[in-house]
Give the backbone structure.
Amino acid sequence: MFALIIGINLFASLHFRCLRGAVPDALAIQSYLIDGLGVDKSRIRMLLDREATRQGIINALVALRDNDDIEHGEAILIYYAGHGEETSVLDEWATDGTKKRIQSIIPQDFDESKGVDPITNQTLVWLIEDIMRKRGDNIVCPADRIFAYIANDLFPLDRHP
């Protein structure tokens, strides 16, 4: 098994409040893989906080695709814990003519004013499809995304660390 584990508590954008549980969750997944399943630590790539930039996440996914140590069909885990959001999409992306939003994950360095975008589910699908074509489809992608718009509209964030 190979794994890419991403945990982001600290975000560059003031639009997103810092989290407390994403990095500990990522570390718990790493610990489970090593201690519980016996996965060699060298097969696990961790991106925590400032390492989990937009380009860092994309590069890590491309590195999974290009890693010749991963045999075709070998298990791959891609885990993300951090903020998520819905973003507007181009009209031609709308599948039924009404959906104008797409879910995305928020990299640590997300900042619209600096041109650092979220990573849309569409981009993630393209990257994971590239991995599947080269390494097989034995890929699991659990995500623990905190959607800021839900928390801000329905719950006070400080009650949900």
The beta strands are 2-7, 44-48, 76-88, 101-105, 119-120, 139-140, 143-147. The chain is about 30% helix and 25% strand.
